[in-house]
Every structure is written in C-alpha cells, then in structure tokens.
Specification:
single chain, 8 strands, 6-stranded mixed beta sheet, Beta Polymerase, domain 2, two-stranded antiparallel ribbon, 5 helices, alpha+beta
C-alpha cells in the first residue's frame, strides 16, 4: 500500500469518527517519520465502538472481507471477529485488530496476544507522507514483536526502532 493511500484511508476514517491507530510496518514508519520499505498492507487498531462504522466504510470504499485471523481472533456477542483482513480489488489490504477502552482507562485487546496493551500505548504519534497520524508507541511496537520468530522484514523494522530516534522515544 502506498503512503498516499494510507493517508487517504486514515483521514477518511478520522472524518467519520472511526478511532484508528497505525501499527505494524506503517506504524513503525510513522514513528520514524519516513517510509523505510514497501508495505503490502496497512495494520490498524480500531476502537470497538467504531468497529461497525469501520466495516461499513470499508464496504463502501470497495474493500471486501477476506479472512479472519483464526488463531488470534475472538468473537463478539454478535459473532463479529476481532482480528480480520479486508482487501480491495486494486490490491490494497487492511489488517484490523479491535481494542476496547475499559471504564478504568485500561485497554483490552480483543484478540489473543502474549502482552498487555496499556493506555499509554495508544498515545503514539507519527507522520506518513507529511500527515500526522495516531499510532501505537515505539515501546508497544517492540512488545508486540516479541515472543515469536520474526519474519525478516519485521526484524528489520525492530532493528530500525532500536537504532533510530523515534518521535516517541
């Protein structure tokens, strides 16, 4: 996915009140303030309260439901998955993971992960193609990429976070 497509989708979601945070490769690049590699998809966190609007907007934009992350996902009371991928006929993909803000301010990850996400993790800010975006913090990116064997491009992302100054360090 190109940087202009990321910005367009992010701004479109924002305009519709869909709370979104970049994570994964684009989240790393946002923290670094520059694109470091090509990205086949956009990984985002979406607040549970925005989930239905997010799904509807993706449908409206021509994205199609592709698959559920079966090994990670939970099912909400209405049967909706909490970790899934939508794809567009032009090749773009968006990988959505759902979080919920608890009454006490903590963040609940609504999919199976070996780490805890704190409210501070959602305080990240970065830049994609000159546009300020919300993203998870560098610390949270590092935590999310531990406990399993990383693909080479993910390992390179973590090396960059470890060696370059990020907007959140």
């Amino acid at each position: 996915m190109r940087s202009d497509q990321v910005v367009d989708l992010y701004l479109d979601f924002e305009a519709r009140g869909i709370e979104t945070w970049l994570m994964g490769g684009w989240g790393v690049d946002a923290l670094l303030g520059r694109q470091t590699r090509d990205h086949h998809d956009l990984d985002v966190l979406v607040e549970l309260a925005s989930l239905e609007r997010c799904r509807q907007r993706l449908d409206d934009l021509g994205f199609e439901f592709r698959y559920v992350w079966d090994d990670e996902t939970w099912r909400l009371d209405d049967g909706q998955p909490t970790a899934f991928v939508y794809g567009h006929p032009d090749g773009r993909e968006i990988d959505v993971h759902v979080v919920r803000r608890e009454a006490n301010g903590e963040i609940a990850t609504l999919w199976t992960v070996p780490y805890t996400m704190t409210a501070e993790a959602l305080e990240g800010h970065g830049v994609v193609a000159g546009q300020s975006v919300r993203c998870i913090t560098a610390h949270m990116q590092r935590r999310a990429h531990t406990g399993y064997e990383l693909a080479p491009h993910h390992g390179a992302d973590m090396d960059l976070l470890g060696h370059e100054r990020c907007s959140q360090d």
